Amino acid sequence: MTHEEIHRSHRIGWLRAAVLGANDGIVSTASLIIGVAAASTGHSGILLAGVAGLVAGAMSMAAGEYVSVSSQSDTERADLALESRSLKQHPESETRELAEIYEQRGLESALARQVAEQLMAHDALGAHARDEIGISTTVAARPVQAALSSAATFTIGAALPLLVAWAAPLDLLIGLVALSSLGFLALLGGIAARTGGAPIGKGAIRVMFWGALAMALTAGVGRLFGVAA
């Protein structure tokens, strides 16, 4: 009987960007809508602020993710170039270095040397990238994928409270947007936790807490400035 394990580490890159985008879309747009509504702004002004927040937020998420992940990708490429030069100039030293890594992980000296030599004969740069630097194809930086994922999920997340605000009567808008957004956040946290193999309840509560805090703070600011006006 074969034993099969389902690993989820290959989902780290896109899952992080997707969850961050959707969560930020819900929280920032709902908070913006609630803050503007608390300042006694009309329905059209609230919706205009929400749409502007959606567009600006999606572009900001895409640009931020692209720049951030591109920086990571540049660092990875620089490290790989440096390692490639070292392998050409000092192959014996690099073999010893790799063998020492395997010794530290529990292999006997002779076996560690044999494993290092065989792996380097097969793919020297790949072996050092994985075991010395910690770069693997599973978690390698992908700037365009991260940017598109963040922008798309931010837009979807931001559209949810915006639709509620569009459909809700003005006197119930704040309550309906807040409650529905907490529900959306709980669903998002649960889905993200389930996809990543983490406890669903913990993931849902975590995003709900920070979302509720953000909405409460912006409602307070909006009410303060609305009264002052």
Major sheet attributes: none
Structural class: mainly alpha
Instruction: List unreliable stretches of 5+ residues.
Output: 1-11
Radius of gyration: 25 Å
Task: Note the beta-strand portion.
Answer: under 5%
SSE succession: HHHHHHH
- Helix percent reads over 70%
Counting structural domains, the number is 2
Separation of termini? 73 Å
For the secondary structure, the number of strands is 0
Overall average residue pLDDT:
81
> Helical segment tally?
7
Q: What does the overall shape look like?
A: elongated
Concise description?
Helix content is 83%, strand content 0%. With 229 residues, it is mainly alpha-helical. The protein folds into two domains: 151 residues, no CATH class; 51 residues, no CATH class.
